[in-house]
Design brief:
heterotrimer; A alpha+beta (about 725); B mainly alpha (about 425); C alpha+beta (about 150); B: about 425 residues; mainly alpha; Cytochrome Bc1 Complex, Chain D, domain 2; two-stranded antiparallel ribbon; 18 helices; 6 strands; disordered N terminus; disordered C terminus; C: about 150 residues; alpha+beta; Ubiquitin-like (UB roll); DNA polymerase, domain 1; 2 domains; 5 helices; globular; binds FE2/S2 (inorganic) cluster
Amino acid sequence: MRATRVAPDLSRRQVIFTAGSAAGGLLIGIGMAAAPGGARAATVSNKPWDDKDSAPHELDAWIAIDPDDSVLIRYQRAEMGQGSMTALPMLITEELQCDWSKVRIEYASATRNARENRVYGNMYSHGSMSVRESQKMVQQVGASARERLIAAAAARWKVPASDCMAAQSVVTHRPSGRTLRYGELAAAAAKIKLAKEPTIKTPAQFSFLPRRMPRVDVAHKTDGAAKFGIDAQVPGMVFAAIAACPVPGGKLKAVDESVLSGAPGIVAIVKLDHAVAVVATDSFWRAKRALSRLQPQWDVGAAGLVNSAQLSKDFRAALGAKMVVARNDGDVAKAMSRGARTFEAIYETPYLSHSPMEPMNATVNLQADRLDVWVGSQDAEGALHAAATASGLEPEQVHVHNAFLGGGFGRRDGNDEIVQAIAIAKVVKRPVKLIWTREEDMRHDRFRPHAVVAFKAATGSDGLPTAWSMRIVTSSIFQSVGIPFPPDKAEPPAVDGLVSNGYAVPNQRIELLLKNTHLPVWFYRAPGANQHVFAIEGFLDEIAAANRLDPYRLRRKLLAGKPDWIKVLDIAAQKGDWGKPLPRGSGRGIAICNFTDSLCAQVAEVTVKPSGEVKVDRVTVVLDTRNMVNPQTIVEQAESSVIFGLTAALYGKITIKDGAAVQGNFDTYRMVRLAEAPKIDVHLAPSGGEVWGGAGEPAVPPVIAAVANAIFAATGKRIRTLPIVDNDLRSA
Amino acid sequence: MLSGVKTVAWSVVFGLMLVCAGCQRAALTVSPPVSGGDYAARTADCVACHSIPGGEAFAGGLKMGTPIGAIYSTNITPDPETGIGKYSLADFDRALRQGIAKDGHRLYPAMPYPSYAKLSDADVAALYGFFMKEAPPVHQANRKTEIPPVLRTRWPLAIWDVVFAPRSSYAAKPGHDTAWNRGAYLVQGPGHCGACHTPRGLGQQEKALDESSPKYLAGAELDGWYAPSLRGEVRTGLGAWSQTDIVDFLKHGHNRIGAPFGSMIDVVNNSTSYFSDSDIQAVATYLKSLPATTDQPSLAKDTTTTAAMMNRPSAQPGGAVYAGYCASCHGFDGKGFAPYMPGLAGNPVVLHDNPSSLINLTLNASIPLVVAGAPDAYRMPQFRQQLSDQDIADVLTFIRKGWGDQAPSVTTAQVAKLRKRTDPASDQVIVLKMR
Amino acid sequence: MITIQVNGTSRQIDIEPDTPLLWVLRDVIGLTGTKFGCGIAQCGACTVHINGAAMRSCSVPIGALDGAKIVTIEGLSPDNSHPVQRAWIEESVPQCGYCQSGQIMAVAAFLKTFAKPTDADIDANVTNICRCGTYPALRRAIHRAANAVKA
Ligand code: FES
Ligand code: FES
């Protein structure tokens, strides 16, 4: 029996038709309407780590087809809510022409990747890469399998393969109408080697995609069944709590262990180079409570004197230093001297903590010749290699059981929790579950860097900028991560959101100075852009205001000759009611950016109360990801990005005092809650073409800028420093 | 009219007395009593003011904010250059009980010498022995006061001392048993409870120094907190507390009714939790003997209407805030989870007219309680960032009128004022932020 | 020894009385659907029903719960069929999903008192944090669940 298909069938034709036809260019309606009852198509286990390294009836490392036609598709990235666990198998299904209702999805094994010459390629999920970086590869996987199944049928029938076609898990011999099910062909297909790899479809040739499809992990996430790393339960497991030196880079000097002597249920106190951990028999709570009684002493060195105010001064002071050039168009100095008016401003954005909802954790079972790691990692392959190094075992001896991730946002690939758990396991010689408290998670984050951008611009008599200089001081993510990069070049995450601006300003110079501190910095959802776009779009707004130009029209003029940019901008303005009157105290702001090959424009509507309180009433998002697999998850990601960006814009700030992060939990590091969530309208405007854009991040940067610009429209006060709550917006 | 100079000089006294309970206190672990001197230092809570978090015990350096500039507590370790190593017993005694340093300068009355004046000679000697022989010497220069030189004149303090500071050790009161007298000594002398709990007069002096006055320990606002009455009022004092409740509170930091906050955390962390059982009982005995100053009707508890109100946001806006942010720990019935999370229904701190402590706690929460080396299992979160003045006024009003509590409403202006005064980033802050 | 009833089964718990219910559920009983997010009653990821009321189990000491009836996400319905769960699936609310057990438990209790909630009721009463920002879908799902209960 065929399972009912749940999602309304939104065919490719409809998408393109709608996208191309609406005046002003609209698009896809987004009301949700999954079938009641939660009938599912493809399935996934609630316990991803039960996934096997191999399966019967494999065609290859990616696909296995059982005699009953059920199809196992391996998914090589990490599911943290972004939906790629559904999207990538959908892409395979598009080529494989199998019945989606018979698909079962499994995590691919990082161990197998290590063993079999990286058969799965890159396994990480960051940079909105899951789909766009592996789209060609997984399509090829599906297409090859399909052709092998067809070849197997053709051989059985002794007919030319070109007379056969595949659809819905059935191969049909067109002339005779004979059919064979995939389940009947899989064993033979597994032995077939194609002489030539088939060509994959272009998006225009898709028949199954794009399609709104319920995500396969949703039902498991509504009844408590979905297993996250923190949920791992291993027989004989003990529980560890850890306190690392509050000042990153500091070392453990001494700890008086005697205060825990005789405490019941304590397995060990483990001293690490930079941290101390307590291991307890029966609960994390016992470990945490015991840990709280230790008063470790730390060696923090000069880092213990660092504080935010000083850092801000230092970064600003460095704005005048010699920098590395990231982009240099025309002759800025000359154009600047000829401008009718000139403008200057400094924008500043603070350190931020990723704070995924699931605090960092790892469960490990270390044996002489085998290491098992249960974790939610954005990069199971990276985790495996980190675990191999930390344990001294070979990569093939390490088994990373990736879980659902309780949020990532860039944080879940540092592997620090895994390395710690292994170090603890070496001491206690039992399976260990290590959990970071929220405080530990926040204070030992690898932060979104602090950045200062100094702008200068000149405008001509028409008010349009003719010259534009942007000088950035921030810290090197590449160095923190360990990515080698020539020092005389500008590392992309430090400048990208500025360099990638689409504006036709003939003279532009963008320069960078990297100033590193003791604080580790890291990729953070829409890295770089989440700071740069706020800055550049805010500064452009300043120019518009000073020249009495409409911010939307100014942008439109500067984007002349870029129809794709203009299209998203126009739709945003139209759908966001740009120019329509608003009550006193309210205002609209607009912003646009290009990130991960996607374009996103937004209009935000805010109300600022006389007390200075900001309420974001409505955000209109227009997103062009070029191509789409599952529009539903793209909409979800856009909504998610808006909320994520709003938290950063309104409240986000990690303050450094005596070298350590001050904020330690959600009472001091505030999150947007439901009551503060604006109405969000998402409009998808895929422009097609060869390139695939990302979906998980590009809507983060513009919301920050659009809200700041809307506040200016409402109050006349310009936000140059984040978070917004640190600005005095009271009306006199 | 007062001359300019006098006004300035008096403001020194005013300012200092406002902050004698300082803020950034150390939660130091010091080994359990090994001698009489160590124990006496515990009862007098020397470590709370003469240490900073992460610093060496008794090396001083605690910043105490005043409206005219900050002062710092001093090094009282036996280091001869920077500490009190050169003090004779007589010098030590004069500083402790009269507030005059070895070089003759007068100590600011942030040092509670008006209370310490009641110390027995034996305790003074024990303390001296401890600070000379047992406290490890720490070479750490005292930090200079930040009070501008023109305001630094200390001679008015001499007059203040003559007028307000008592001169003799505690003498046992006839007609009371040993426990009561021991309790009275501990409360009035080393424990210096009156420094926070007794209302102050115009000269910032404590209005009473012992139980002969109904003002003694009758409750006072200090440092943005309201230190409640320790007398027998049924609603706002200790009238509803049993002897055991008081003992639990001082010994363990919680009891079935409430939990300490603000400066009282320091007191429990560093002092009362180290008291011997008999001394704690003595303190409780003495406190239970202080009669109520006002007759208060006992509470008629009513949890049903209040619980219903939480579900009607329009009827009582604070009810929704309570349900969303408070109920999980303090219960829909306002009973909390004693002894870990204090109840709010019938809690004297909730019931008092002065809402300062409630506002302060809601905005800034409290530093952690550390008893017997173990930090408290649960902590109050801060709501400074998450709740507006209106939200806080609403929810506190709801709490103060809920469950039959019937205390006056809290206004947004009251919240706004404390928010500003307790904001570490404000230039008008007079209270350093309570962690 | 504390006796509690969890999803209809009686359990004897022998552990320090200050241990939060959250860790009893997760580590002692092995019900991991209830999540740890903050430990200070701020995020709601640990929300369960205690005697019918939604409470944040990270801040409820087991010592105070003798005799209490507790329902966790695992016990909300036998087959993911509670109207709130169904609405959650239909609106595709969960993203990473980590906060959702708590969201669902909070909303299930909320709908018992607010059978037909307005947006303002929802704003005032549903205060759990979702770092993935599923709030728009969450709001739609609450209305959908309310309608389903009514119907
Ligand atoms: S873990 Fe309990 S509320 Fe966050
Ligand atoms: S779905 Fe990820 S935190 Fe809510």
